């Protein structure tokens, strides 16, 4: 698979209101295992050496969607970062982070400033001394982030205003995640969260959900009922949606053929993949490929 990196910088336009949000940069990178970090394509203004670390003049949201790594900041013990983690960076706070050599990681990020950003991130629930936020696999968050990158890449009419609204939406999701994280998970939610992580790790494989439930010492009937109660959908539908989102990502970010993507994503044929993609996503996979 082709390694993927997108990085955009922006400047505010005096003719375009930014809703109190000024987006400075946004990007998405798949960093492979056993490669130095940051890689040589990292922008000079944001490049840092691990021994020295860095501090920024802006806020940043960094979302690690896959892989594991480490994060350190002033006044904090070293933190292990897992997939599904947001790192919230504040201006002027020294920090450093990197993926584990054995796993690499996939990262999304957006840098921003502005009066509304400052107001929101100074709320009591946010804290520079507690910058790690666990959101897990959040479909709405990833879709919004991908849309933000798409809007900025296209640079269409009113893109600055639209990108500002998308960032406000992202911040709202982060805000809600922080509030929810302050509420202790129920036992049901803890179990389903662990099972959901298993699905994410094996997204491209056939999953025997009866065997999966048995592995957690659960009855299959209880598992199905509780999964839908907690996540609002059945295990099979959740797995299918996740597979399609990952396939959508491969279409956008690689040069693999649709047949290769279908096979990589665990579908039995390109025809079946294209049919189910159209049914669930409401547009053709081939149309998405032509937009690249």
Could you list some keywords that capture this structure?
42% helix; 2 domains; Arc Repressor Mutant, subunit A; disordered N terminus; 10 helices; 292 residues; three-stranded antiparallel sheet; 9 strands; Jelly Rolls
General description of the model:
- This protein is α+β, with helices and mostly antiparallel strands and 292 residues long.
- It has two domains: 5-181, Regulatory protein AraC (Jelly Rolls), CATH 2.60.120.280; 187-290, Homeodomain-like (Arc Repressor Mutant, subunit A).
- It contains ten helices and nine strands.
- The strands form two sheets. A six-stranded antiparallel beta sheet has the order 1-2-8-3-6-9. Strands 5-4-7 form a three-stranded antiparallel beta sheet, with no helix packed on it.
- Helix 2 runs antiparallel to helix 3.
- The longest helix is centred in the middle third of the chain and has 23 residues, at 159-181.
- The two termini are 16 Å apart.
- The relative contact order is 0.12.
- Residues 1-5 and 12-17 have low confidence and may be disordered.
- GO terms for molecular function: DNA-binding transcription factor activity; sequence-specific DNA binding.
- It holds the Pfam family AraC_binding.
- This is Transcriptional regulator, AraC family.
